[in-house]
Amino acid sequence: MMVFPLTFICIFTLLLSLITKLSMAIDTLSPNETLADNGKLLVSSGEAYELGFFNPPYSNKRYIGIWFKNVPIQTPIWVANKNNPISDSSGLLTITTTGNIIITNQTTTVWSSSNSSPPTPPNNPILQLLDSGNLVVKNGRGDYLWQSFDYPCDTLVPGMKLGRNLRTNQEWFLTSWKTLQDPSSGDYTYKLDRRGLPQIVLYQGSTVNYRGGSWDGVGFGGDPPLPTKAVVDNIFIINAIDVYYTFKNRDDTAISRFVVNQTGSLQLLTWNERLGEWFNLMTMQRDACDVYATCGPYGICRFDVLAACYCPNGFIPRLQQEWDRGDWSGGCVRRTPMNCSAPQGFRKLPGLKLPDSLYFSVNMTKMSLVDCEEACLRNCTCVAFALTSVSGCMVWFGELLDMKEFSEYGQDLYLRMAASDLGSNKKNKRTAMITSIIVISGVLVLSLIGWYFLKKLHLRRARRLDKRNQKVQDNNQRIVEEEDLALLLFDLATVSSATNNFSLTNKIGEGGFGPVYRGELTTGREIAVKRLSKTSRQGFTEFKNEVILISKLQHRNLVRLLGCCIHEEERMLIYEYMPNKSLDTFIFNRTRGISLDWKKRIDIIVGIARGLLYLHRDSRLRVIHRDLKAGNILLDNEMNPKIADFGLARSFGGDQFEENTNKVIGTYGYMSPEYAINGHFSMKSDVFSFGVIVLEIVSGKKNRGFYDPDHDLNLLGHAWKLWNEGNPIKLFDVFMEDPVPTSEVFRCIQVALLCVQQRPEDRPTMSSVLLMLDSENPVLPMPKQPGFYSESQLSSTGKHHCTTNEVTITMLHGR
After folding, report:
1. Which contiguous run of DSSP H or E holds residue 172?
2. Is domain 154-286 classified as CATH 3.40.1130?
3. What are the beta bridge partners of residue 629?
4. Fold for domain 454-577?
5. Can 131 be counted among the known catalytic residues?
6. Confidence of residue 785 (pLDDT cuts 50, 70, 90)
7. Counting Cβ atoms within 10 Å, is residue 395 exposed (0-12), middle (13-18) or buried (19+)?
8. Where are the domains of the chain?
9. For 226-238, what is each residue's pLDDT tens digit?
10. In this model, does residue 612 exceed pLDDT 90?
11. Which of 293, 468, 527, 571 has the fewest CB atoms nearer than 10 Å to its CB?
């Protein structure tokens, strides 16, 4: 038996006690304690949140903030000294004996929770970080003297409020950060407007930018119920003390938050632990109709049509010429002016976001539709009314603004109009009588002969459906058999099970083809499922094209197609799963872009070049990709690039090198001039796209949407300008980690400029590109002027209308 000396046992016990104390999460701070900027943190008792000093990405300013403990990407939900940062690590957080929280920088107070001391000092105040993320000051009895939830920043987490305390006039609202690096108060605020029925309003300064609509017991403004019902529950409180919105997670283990970003967009995000990133469940502003009052007074916005705004029946555009040009801000006016002494009635407008107005009233007592209508008729200035289950009777006065039509859901608005615009009551009654007679007669006739025709129709439809299904199955089978494809066919049940029935949380992207989902087979293998959308501009031809081409192409720098799923009209492509997603998520995302050092970037450039060379020269087919862009370069777990999305690719014969098309398909910013303007494409079209990608990788900036205060050029033009000035080194991504081999980056820029030259014959082949990239000291030709080196060049062709969206587009050109 081993015997330890008493001294050793005492030392061991002391060390064990110290380790235990250090391992315990400290969630409180007393007046005799301080929290210094030395890595020390307050951690809530359940280890859900942490509080301490931090600095935003790419900033050396120090702030006191609260963030999620179990989210690897530091995500502050609240910042104390957001408008007064500390420039070094000398900050201290303390709580005084009067319960005041103070942040000091040496001897200077940079932030305080209170500007005055209470008349009676609290008994034993302590500062505590709760498991809800709320930072509170409590007295000895446990009463809250102050709480951070009363002063939200840009984020709403479960338990926080958006609204107002009617007794104290305490208002809870969100304010955007100024920039991603600066948490000081930005331009946008989200507030609860409690006039009449509460509604969420986004202000840009003092100007209304977006209005969520009135609360109807389910959502705001008649919007469809949240697709996130399995994730969060909406809670709205209206009583004599409080009017506010809050929410809670359905699953206690979920981590979710609302955040208003620097552009004023309000998003509901949830942390996806499997993907290691925040997943956007919902964005409040979904389309152009969400811009406040975009259709002017009495105008109604409908996003699913080309002309977004229209006037309700009985109204005409106020300014017809401007309306025809797409300027709807003038709104609509009545065809027949209101006259209270003339007969009047109401036209029902179903499925709307109820309008905004400076003047309206609400009667919360239970009323019938007739009572509400009579209440509006009794007041000559009443222009409309609505009846909802939550509000009772709502009546509007003055011009109606910000109405939006929904394809389903929404609320009914009754618009007051002259009887002449509605049709006379007598005529309506006569029409109703005739309609009733016809309906009754029809029922009697159908009762005698309807069963015969219904049965015959049913049989006819059944035969037609059988023929259609057989045709679809034959067509589907022909895709595989005719092309002799060594391709695995997945059944729909397998794919549905792997993607959790195409769950929103499994969705990892969306392109011109349709949505893409992450899945996991029963074998444990991860897959990516590309599902053809019914509204996709790409269809069966592109699907078949991708199946045929990529199944016959095998290269380490091409994405691997595992199989496809064809079930009736459902068509899906099953790929190997790329955990690092696409290249654009790294080079254009500041938080991820910093992880791409130059070695990784040059390896990606060379990998793309090798994949293209295989397509152009070494594969069984000579293939032109036609939609090469950063978003179509996927990255595996070792950051190896793989070219993807062959739906628009074309294969050539052995002696064929170029072709023309009447249908120009591709992405703005990556298309070569000869292809975008004349529909002429060849291997040199892909070379041009490759050059654009190289410049984007080097600079970390997009070609389209590039901005420089000194000129109006895009990224190609900017690179060309720096080249001519003898200073291409300025193109380097400022977030690239040092050291950077200047000569190697310089060579990549020169190769890229050679690839994007205006004339196709001046551009190198991919074999020459690889030779130039792999050689130590190659003698490279001098590049000539690039094509499309400014945005105006693209739009001046007269062939299309430009957009900054990086999406695949289709343009038709007559020849």
Report:
1. strand 171-172
2. no
3. none
4. Phosphorylase Kinase; domain 1 (3.30.200)
5. no
6. very high
7. buried
8. 25-151, 154-286, 289-426, 454-577, 583-812
9. 554 568 888 888 8
10. yes
11. 468
Please give the CATH topology (third level) of the domain spanning 583-812: Transferase(Phosphotransferase); domain 1 (1.10.510)
172, 150 Cβ separation under 8 angstroms: yes
The pLDDT of residue 382 = 92
d(C-alpha 89, C-alpha 440), whole Å? 85
Which among 286, 135, 163 is positioned nearest to 235, based on CA atoms?
163
What's the pLDDT at 183?
94
Report angle CA 94, 97, 103 to the nearest 5 degrees: 20
What residues contact residue 593 under an 8 Å CB cut-off, 6+ apart? 586, 587, 700, 733, 735
Average pLDDT over residues 293-319: 85
Bridge partners for 516 per DSSP: 509, 530
Q: Which of 138, 128, 143, 151 is nearest to 43 (CA)?
A: 128
Catalytic residue among 290, 627, 645, 686: 627
> Encoding tokens for residue 454?
């219904």
Mean pLDDT of the 583-591 span: 78
The yes-or-no verdict on residue 29 having pLDDT over 90 is: yes
Average pLDDT over every residue of 11-25: 47
Residue 486 has pLDDT above 80, yes or no: no
Q: Specify which residues 634 forms β-bridges with.
A: 582, 642
| Residue 457 pLDDT | 60
Residue range 277-299, pLDDT digits in tens? 888 787 777 777 888 888 999 99
Q: Is 376 left (phi over 0), alpha (psi -120 to 50) or beta?
A: alpha
How far apart are alpha carbons 58 and 215 in whole angstroms? Answer: 40
User: What's the mean pLDDT in 423-447?
Assistant: 52
Torsion sign, CA atoms 123, 127, 132, 134: positive
Domains 25-151 and 154-286 share a fold: yes
- Token pair 């499309």 is found at 788
- pTM of the shown model: 0.56
Report residue 588 as tokens: 């254009």
Q: Which CATH class is domain 25-151?
A: mainly beta
> Nearest-CA neighbor of 681 among 715, 658, 703, 698?
658
